[in-house]
Amino acid sequence: MSTASDPWGRVADDGTVYVRTAEGERVVGSWQAGSPEEALAFFKRKFDALETEVSLLEQRIAATDLSPSQARSTISRLQAAVTDAHAVGDLDGLRARLETLTGLVDQRREEHKAAREHARSEAVEIKERIVAEAERIAAEATHWKASGERMRQLLEEWKAAPRGDRAVETALWKRLSAARNAFTKRRKAYFAHLEDEREIVRARKEKLVSEAEALVSASDWGPTASAYRELMRSWKEAGRADRASEDALWDRFKAAQDSFFQARAAAMSAKDAHLREHAEAKEQLLAEAQKLLPVADSRSARSALRGIQQRWEQAGPVPRDTQERLEAGLRRVEDAVRQADDSRWRRSNPEALSRARDTVDQLRSAISQLEGQLAKAQQRGDEKARTQAAEALDARRSWLAEAERTLAELSG
């Protein structure tokens, strides 16, 4: 057998096959079945197989999501295979490439580790926010339906959130569970208290309904209407019972109230019709009274008016919207008759007539004297005396005119 040689190995005369490495030659096998070239070709194919595995690993690490642990395991296996390889080729190059992959995988592992830490940190932040909102709802919420729905949403958000550090998550989960339990406890306590309050309201309104129903047949309209208004005020201030009781009690309360006010309206309508009849009678009496005007004979007018007044009182009350007009019309007739009667009396009173004549005579005498004083003052040129006499004379003449009118009336 002739010696065969290659840059990465050789075949000795005795058929021993060597591979060249940076550490020197190493026996990789023995070949007796063929030529040295065939031996080198065989062991080079084994190297090619190893190189193919390394190339595939490089591609997987570069282009796939191969985990660092899987990659590190494959690298270790290939490093051992290359170290003990019965192959001829650039084994040092393969080892160098595997070392490069080792560094890349280590870098990838650190990156993955940092990414995991970041994800854990984000997961903690998300769940801390969820827990903080749940605790705030548990402590402050009063809108129970919306808050209960939000609590359910927070639980779903927790389930969908990424996982973080187990110890931290365990502590946060305990806080979330405590918040949910506290919210449920507060909500139950609120509705239990609300139920107690509604029962108190129900009992209070039951009493109001009984009072309203007891007044249905009352006929003292004014006081009873006031009592119903007071019951309505108490009803509004009482609060609300549960829906079913509230509706049933209100139906009873309103039925009692409506029944009373309908009865009152019917009674008022009948009374109003009766009062309208009274008003028609008084309209006729007023027309009869107005025929006495103007008063010609006060005695006969007074006698006729007395009869009208008696029938007026007997006619009874009238509707409020006509009362003032009718009463005012009769008062005007009464005033006119009274004034005519007074005038007649004054005319028939001798003392009054005598006083009126004396007053006229006195004023005429005073006027005569003042006229003399005025003439003398004018003759003397005494302006002050003339002014005083003129002013006094004007006053007396005015009084005289009034006194003469009174005398004329009394003289009839």
Task: Describe the protein.
- The chain is mostly helical and 412 residues long.
- The protein is 80% helix and 5% strand.
- The protein is built from eleven helices and four strands, in the order E-E-E-E-H-H-H-H-H-H-H-H-H-H-H.
- It has a four-stranded antiparallel beta sheet, covered by helices on one side.
- A hairpin with a 2-residue loop joins strand 1 (4-6) and strand 2 (9-11).
- Helix 2 packs antiparallel against helix 3 (91-140).
- The longest helix has 50 residues, at 91-140.
- The radius of gyration is 65 Å and the shape is rod-shaped.
- The chain starts with a strand and ends with a helix.
- The model has no long low-confidence stretch (mean pLDDT 85).
Strand order of the largest sheet: 1-2-3-4
Per DSSP, what share of the residues sits in E-state strands of 2 or more residues?
under 5%
| Number of helical segments with 4 or more residues | 11
Instruction: Characterize the main sheet.
Output: 4 strands, antiparallel
Overall strand count: 4
Could you tell me the radius of gyration in angstroms?
65 Å
The average pLDDT value, as a whole number, equals 85
Please identify the oligomeric state: single chain
In angstroms, what separates the terminal alpha carbons?
Answer: 189 Å
- Approximately how much helix is present in the residues? over 70%
List unreliable stretches of 5+ residues: none
Structural class by sheet pairing and helices: mainly alpha
